[in-house]
Structures are given as C-alpha cells and as structure tokens.
Amino acid sequence: MKITGIMNDILSVPQWTLFLDRDGVINKRIVDGYVLHYEELILMPFLKEALHLLKGKFYKIIVVSNQQSVGKGLCSYDEVVQIHNRLNEDLQKENIAIDHFFFCPHKAEDDCPCRKPKTGMAYEAQKMFPEIDFKRSIMVGDMITDIQFGHALGMTTVYVGEKDVPNRDQIMELADFSFENLYEFAQLFKSK
Ligand SMILES: [Mg+2]
Ligand SMILES: [Zn+2]
Fold this sequence. Notes:
Elements: H1 3-12, E1 17-20, H2 47-54, E2 60-66, H3 68-71, H4 77-92, E3 100-104, H5 120-128, E4 137-141, H6 144-152, E5 156-160, H7 168-174, E6 177-179, H8 182-186
Parallel strand pairs: 1-2, 1-4, 2-3, 4-5, 5-6
Helix pairs in contact: 6-7
This protein binds magnesium ion and zinc ion (ZN).
The site of magnesium ion has 7 residues, from loops.
C-alpha cells in the first residue's frame, strides 16, 4: 500500500494504533549503555512537536521497548516505570501523553516471549486495549528487530534513523517506509 492510501485510512477510520519503539525514537539512544535515570532520558529533537501532530489521529499511541538493563541488574523494574511516569507527566502538560509504555525487562538470552522481535508486547497491548487491530497499526523503530516485530504482526512498518546503519539493506527490504526521525514521519499529518 502507498503511504497516501494508509494516510487516508488513518484519517477516516479512527482505530489505527501507533506503536513506537522508545530508545532512538522517543529519546536518544545511549550507545553501549542504558537510560538508568530520568536525567539520562534526552528527548529526540522535535519529539513533542511530532506527538502534537500524531496525537488525536490514532486510537492509541503505545511504546514497546526492550529494557534488558533490568535483567542485567542495572536498574529495577519500578525504576523504569518511574522514568516512564515522569516522562508522561511532562507530556501530559501538553496533552500529548503516551497511552501506555510496555517494556520487556528480560535479558536477550532469557528467551522470553516479550523481547522484540518477539511479539508478546503487542498482545499485552491488545489485552489492555482490545480494539487494537494489528492490520491497522504502525510500528516505528530504529532497529531491525522493531521492523521484524511489526512485520510479524502484519503492521505497517516505519524505520527511523540514520541512513548508514549496519544492516541497512535488510531493514530497507523489510520496512514499508523510512524517515529520518519521528518528526519527519509526523509531517505527513501536518494540517490534516
Ligand atoms: Mg530503539
Ligand atoms: Zn521479555
């Protein structure tokens, strides 16, 4: 489907869901490290402007994030929840809060059902918000695992990030669309 067809459907049918990866989409990814404190959560440029354009166009805006910092014992489950709560308090002031943050706290080697590219978090989201329809969902992420996650669920997939990533070819083959960042994607909704 072309982006214009998807856009028309999003704008006419109010049940599309937007799934967002966190690190590299909402906030800057810490290379070889983790966001362990709220102060380390540096928002991506124009993140709020992007959310202003996207909010209200979707049934829900949901974050799905791998946070193996918890499994590695670098921070607790509750500390991650607190970081998300503080971010949402900030976003709520502008009425652009995220509807829910789902995260996988397990380590890669735990082989859990919720670490992307596995699809567990999408089904958790659907349990919480039963009207979620994966065929009418968009997954935005900066890693091949995000695109694989969305693809496996039949979502429309959007890669955001740099043009010279290691597995660029693989990403481009699987992703339906590619933008520099969430703000560039959100521009599609400008004055709609
Ligand atoms: Mg990411
Ligand atoms: Zn998990």
